[in-house]
Amino acid sequence: MFDTTGSVDSLRFGGRTGRPNSSGGVLQLDGTPFGKGSPVGSWFNVRFGIQYTVYASFNGARRNFDGAGTNASDNNTVRVFTWLAF
Q1: CA distance 22 to 2
Q2: pLDDT tens per residue, range 35-78
Q3: By the 8 A CB rule, do 23 and 59 touch?
Q4: What is the pLDDT of residue 17?
Q5: What are the boundaries of each domain within the chain?
Q6: Is 71 in contact with 65 (CB distance < 8 Å)?
């Protein structure tokens, strides 16, 4: 979960509220297929994952935060990633 708050600054944050207030959550599922029992596990490490970020509010509002009809949920994102170390 995340919750960002701040002072009103219409020049910096624009929109209807002029606030940076945003909240939501991040869900992540990942896995490391090569472990200690693997022949390459002692020198090679890789992790695969997927991450979903969901916004409950963005720039101080849930709906129409920018005055152009954009909702906080329009910023929800999916990220697929690979992490590699050797």
Answers
A1: 8
A2: 667 776 667 788 999 999 999 999 989 999 888 899 999 999 99
A3: no
A4: 84
A5: 2-85
A6: yes
Question: What is the CA angle 3-57-18, rounded to 5?
Answer: 90
* CA distances to 2, 23, 42, 69 from 26, in Å: 8, 10, 31, 24
- Pairing mode, strands 45-57 and 22-31: antiparallel
pLDDT (0 to 100) of residue 65: 87
d(CA 13, CA 10): 5
Query: Is the entire prediction scored with pTM above 0.85?
Result: no
Q: How far apart are CA 73 and CA 61, in angstroms?
A: 11
**Alpha-carbon radius of gyration of the chain:** 19
